[in-house]
Backbone:
């Protein structure tokens, strides 16, 4: 679904991504793990065109999207949920979802508010609530639901577990597993290894802009030396 090869990105003169390569298979959940400042968000921003990669290839369902404008990349099927929540505070939950609506893709059924309420049951109860009067965790779920209304080929989630209370974290893990069960392809950025282990099939570890480990989630959990060296856990 997504193949990233030798990606290099800069902020000004700072060479942040120094040859990042990985691939996400259709229907898989891949987690990009790394400490603060490792380059997880920069990788995601490079994929969706908010940071323009200096070098490298990004293929999404066969198309080389490196260097495209963000709106064109979104139309090609990359759905991005940033670290900071992005909802319209004056609009209700249902209205927020309508803003995200895009045509269906690849012959798959289009996401509807009702299907998303099945995925995020607490949003169903809040459907007429303005976004500004919801908790941070609820806003995070609404941001994901609204992104899914765009029927993305691949969903990018930047640290969805960050700042969530344990009960909300549990709902988030359930929602990601339900998405996976429906065949949605997901790339997740995380520092929370425990959360990642619940939802991801495979892991890629990034450290100072380089991939230092890649393999199955089970292999990472078995590799204590790698976890200590790169993740401090
Ligand atoms: N807009 C920016 N301008 C300059 N440097 C930046 C900018 N954004 C991030 N950086 C730097 O790029 C590096 C990678 O940052 P990035 O945000 O990708 O890390 P991250 O892995 O997402 O970390 P976190 O877990 O804290 O979100 C860091 O050294 C950071 O200080
Ligand atoms: Mg980040």
Residues:
């Amino acid at each position: 679904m997504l193949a990233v090869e030798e990606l290099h990105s800069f902020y000004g003169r700072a060479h942040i991504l120094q040859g990042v390569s990985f691939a996400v298979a259709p229907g898989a959940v891949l987690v990009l793990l790394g400490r603060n400042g490792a380059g997880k968000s920069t990788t995601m921003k490079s994929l969706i065109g908010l940071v323009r990669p200096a070098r490298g290839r990004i293929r999404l369902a066969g198309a080389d999207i490196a260097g495209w404008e963000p709106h064109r990349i979104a139309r090609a099927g990359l759905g991005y949920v940033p670290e900071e929540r992005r909802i319209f505070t004056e609009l209700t939950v249902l209205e927020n979802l309508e803003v995200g609506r895009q045509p269906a893709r690849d012959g798959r059924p289009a996401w509807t508010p009702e299907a998303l309420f099945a995925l995020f049951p607490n949003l169903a109860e809040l459907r007429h609530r303005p976004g500004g009067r919801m908790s941070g965790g609820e806003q995070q779920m609404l941001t994901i639901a609204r992104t899914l209304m765009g029927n993305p080929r691949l969903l990018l989630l930047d640290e969805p577990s960050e700042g969530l209370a344990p009960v909300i974290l549990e709902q988030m893990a359930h929602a990601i597993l339900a998405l996976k069960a429906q065949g949605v392809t997901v790339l997740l950025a995380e520092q929370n290894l425990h959360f990642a282990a619940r939802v991801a099939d495979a892991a890629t570890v990034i450290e100072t802009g380089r991939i230092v480990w890649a393999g199955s989630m089970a292999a990472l959990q078995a590799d204590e030396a790698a976890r200590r060296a790169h993740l401090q856990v």
Q: What stands out?
A: The CA atoms of residues 220 and 226 lie 7 Å apart.
